[in-house]
């Protein structure tokens, strides 16, 4: 823990130095990375930190309300931007293009907020694996490769850029953050869009959101995976009564990992898989089929896009 405490001391000092007398705007998603960043920056610059939560319309069930509750003690600004995101994503099917559009939208929203509040810097919770995967050409993490080049800030501050996720959790512990934040499952910046193959539409996202909630309810407490979630893969045939119909194919994924660079599927009991499949097909209209993904990383990635 001495290591984490030393890191905190140095990071607070570095943020203070980088920001100077300026205001700093940041995206607070409620994940462990951005929450740790917010706490460090609060210690460094106090009220000059302007945390913003963007409701992209691509968040998990109940997430926006939960974030408001969790961060009721800081001056969190909520930006409702679901319509904007869906409009920008209409008709787009290429995964990289989807990420770039989402990254660009995020930045434009922050620029807007920075302009309105007079902030000169953007603070981001980028961690080391985000950089490696973006540089390795695997995919653009929305907070790295997704940034537009004409970014209109004096600078970007990234205090966690040398840390792995487990180190960030250690720092969260040393900062005495609530357990819910410390142990929170990672959730990608582009949100449910990367769990919705092909075009992102409000209807499809609603299916992904419900299926995710069921996967989390059934798996988080019992198996404590690194991550578990559901994704909509596309349409396939199903049968209801005597009628063949087209319905969504939902994939469920649960993995163990240390740092997301590699991952192993969780060996779920048949009974659990059966219950999840029954619940998803019964509770979400339009789902015809549920599959469980047993592919490790590599060769697969954790997310679907
Ligand atoms: P993959 O799918 O590359 O994911 O095996 C590795 C870890 O990173 C998360 N992930 C992201 N996080 N922006 C993020 O902030 C992104 O664009 C992004 N893509 C994937 C993923 O959930 C997993 O924990």
Fold and architecture overview:
The protein has 305 residues and is α/β, with parallel strands linked by helices. Helices cover 42% and strands 20% of the residues. The radius of gyration is 20 Å and the shape is globular. Bound molecules: xanthosine-5'-monophosphate. Xanthosine-5'-monophosphate (XMP) binds at residues 99, 133, 141-143, 186, 188-190, 194, 227, 260, 297, 301-303.
Summarize the structure.
By secondary structure, the protein is α/β, with parallel strands linked by helices.
Chart the SSEs and their pairings.
Blueprint: H1 2-19, E1 23-27, H2 32-45, E2 49-55, H3 63-70, E3 77-80, H4 82-89, H5 95-117, E4 119-123, H6 128-135, E5 155-157, H7 165-174, H8 179-182, H9 202-223, E6 227-240, E7 243-256, E8 264-265, H10 270-283, E9 287-292
Parallel strand pairs: 1-2, 1-4, 2-3, 4-5, 7-9
Antiparallel strand pairs: 6-7, 7-8
The structure holds xanthosine-5'-monophosphate (XMP).
Xanthosine-5'-monophosphate (XMP) binds next to loops.
């Amino acid at each position: 823990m001495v290591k984490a405490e030393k890191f905190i001391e140095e990071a607070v000092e570095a943020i203070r130095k980088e920001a100077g007398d300026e205001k700093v705007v940041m995206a607070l998603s409620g994940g462990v990375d951005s929450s740790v960043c917010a706490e460090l920056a609060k210690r460094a610059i106090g009220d000059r930190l302007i945390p913003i939560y963007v409701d992209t319309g691509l968040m998990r069930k109940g997430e926006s309300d939960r974030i408001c509750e969790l961060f009721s003690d800081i001056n969190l600004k909520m930006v409702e931007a679901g319509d904007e995101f869906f409009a920008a994503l209409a008709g787009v099917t290429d995964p990289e293009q989807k990420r770039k559009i989402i990254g660009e939208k995020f930045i434009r929203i922050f620029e807007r907020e920075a302009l309105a509040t007079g902030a000169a810097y953007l603070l981001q919770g980028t961690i080391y694996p985000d950089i490696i995967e973006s540089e390795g050409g695997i995919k653009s993490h929305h907070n790295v490769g997704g940034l537009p080049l004409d970014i209109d800030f004096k600078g970007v501050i990234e205090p966690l850029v040398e840390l792995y996720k487990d180190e960030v959790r250690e720092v969260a512990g040393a900062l005495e953050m609530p357990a819910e934040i410390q142990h929170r499952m990672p959730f990608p910046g582009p949100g449910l869009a990367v769990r919705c193959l092909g075009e992102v539409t409000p209807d499809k996202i609603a299916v992904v959101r419900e299926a995710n909630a069921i996967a989390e309810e059934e798996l988080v407490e019992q198996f404590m995976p690194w991550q578990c979630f559901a994704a909509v893969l596309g349409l396939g045939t199903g049968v209801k009564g005597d009628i063949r119909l087209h319905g969504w194919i939902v994939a469920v994924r649960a993995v163990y990992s240390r740092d997301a660079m590699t991952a192993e599927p969780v060996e779920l009991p048949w009974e659990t898989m059966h219950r999840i499949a029954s619940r998803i097909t019964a509770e979400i209209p339009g789902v015809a089929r549920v599959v469980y993904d047993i592919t490790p990383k590599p060769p697969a990635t954790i997310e679907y896009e």
